[in-house]
Amino acid sequence: MAKNSALIDPRLPRGFVDFEPADLAAVEEMVAKIRHVYERYGFDPIQTPFFEYTETLGKFLPDTDRPNAGVFSVQDDDEQWMSLRYDLTAPLARYFAQNYQDLPKPFRSYRQGWVFRNEKPGPGRFRQFMQFDADTVGAGGPESDAEMCMMMADTMDALGLAGKYVVRVNNRKVLDGVMQAIGVTDEAQKLTVLRAIDKLDKFGPEGVRLLLGEGRKDESGDYTEGAKLNVDQADAIIEMMSAARLDDLVDLEAEAGPDGFLDAEFKTPALAKFKITQAFAEGFAELQSMATLFTSAGYGPDRIKIDPSVVRGLEYYTGPVFEIELTFKVQNEKGQDVVFGSVGGGGRYDGLVSRFRNEHTPATGFSIGVSRLASALKLTGNLNAAPVTGPVVVTVMEKDRIADYQTMVADLRTAGVRAELFLGSSKNMGKQMKYADKRNAPAVIIQGSDEREQGIVQIKDLAVGAEAAASITDNAAWKTERPGQYSVPRDEMVNFVKAIPAVAAWMKANG
């Protein structure tokens, strides 16, 4: 046979992955536990489409012929730009604004789904990944932010990660206040500073210092432009994010003067060169209120703690920000021990809904990176990615009796058993058994002419057979004993199959 030169190479685009049945089943089990916690807190599900108008996504407004910086975009038939959603928060803001009159306020919802980012892929960094969000829209006090942090902690506990995580909390007003104090007022420069701080876990203090200054070149030679801060400004930022506690930085007993600055001073050397701002004081007070709520609800600093280094990269946050950090160590690609790091986070975004409506609408929420969290659960043994129990396979011994075999399959399915008829072309029993093994079938059913005349079927419990195979070394003994194989009257077939442990376990798990 001549080679077909027109064959298409079966390959995936960079940054996308396929998912196997075992991985999907394990993630589904994990997601069910997350959903249970969210619903216990009173959140209800909604679902938004994969596509939104590009302008809905905010920061990706089309300023070129084709908006493609960060998002995947297409034009519909009336030349409106649409983009695959970048996260689940901007679509929620659109949904809330569009359905404002009919929704309760505050509006509490959760959403699970795929998001898409047109960015450079890398190890553990994909262009399509799943998020699981929870948000409260219409509640402005720090108690709603504190509740989000508590729910994050309870979710980690429910997933078996107690003692292996900490929810870290900061406030964008604190960060904005420090930048205002050191003279950083340009919005683009502020965003560059925030993104530099957000790289602390990845690059360390010295790497962040480079990003705060002229810029940083990575090992591949790629250069990232810096925030262009001077030495005093960079020292102040480094000092702030290195503090173990916010109240190590400042004594906030003084009141603000007419210029918005406080008479109190920063305690640390680099920050002491600058004045405290009103924004810093407001953020600090909100964090103090949240800390009181954590303590009163029984969440100690081993589970939730105030941390000045937390930033979150998205620019729409306006108040408290928080993230879940897993604290156990793993080995990186260089074989070095590193902390696993963040698997989710969020914060307050009071300005997002106001893009669609004139009134001020406070909102807060968080997002879990499902794929990254699944990787963490695998490492800790809390994610069961075992092969999915396959169907009971009814083999085909006589092609002219397909209807009889299909009746067996129908009887099993009616009784709630997962079952299928072998639909391949081979009558060879060895090949049909190999197929059943690849399907991870718990059992196979065999009925040839001899069994049909006797009114019986042969049922092979493949798990029992595999276990016996490990202890029987003599081939003749194997053929004589036929471990795990049973002759069963045809009218007792269904009840016998239902009693096979692997089948019974699947039925129990699937209702």
TrEMBL record:
Keyword match Cell wall biogenesis/degradation: no
Keywords, alphabetical: Aminoacyl-tRNA synthetase, ATP-binding, Cytoplasm, Ligase, Nucleotide-binding, Protein biosynthesis
EC number(s) per entry: 6.1.1.21
Domain Aminoacyl-transfer RNA synthetases class-II family profile: 10-387
Organism this protein belongs to: Pelagibacterium luteolum
Location within or outside the cell: Cytoplasm
UniProt cross-references to HAMAP family, sorted A to Z: His_tRNA_synth
Keyword Nucleotide-binding: yes
SUPFAM superfamilies: Class II aaRS ABD-related (SSF52954), Class II aaRS and biotin synthetases (SSF55681)
Subunit details: Homodimer.
Main localization of the protein described in the UniProt heading: cytoplasm
Sequence similarity: Belongs to the class-II aminoacyl-tRNA synthetase family.
Catalysed reactions, as listed in the record: tRNA(His) + L-histidine + ATP = L-histidyl-tRNA(His) + AMP + diphosphate + H(+)
EC class (word): ligase
One Pfam family cited in the UniProt record for this chain: tRNA-synt_His
Residues given in the record as L-histidine binding sites: 87-89, 117, 131, 135, 312, 316-317
Biological process terms in GO annotation: histidyl-tRNA aminoacylation
Top-level taxon of origin: Bacteria
PROSITE patterns tied to this protein: AA_TRNA_LIGASE_II
One CC-aspect GO term: cytoplasm
GO molecular function terms attached to this record: ATP binding; histidine-tRNA ligase activity
Protein's name in the database: Histidine--tRNA ligase
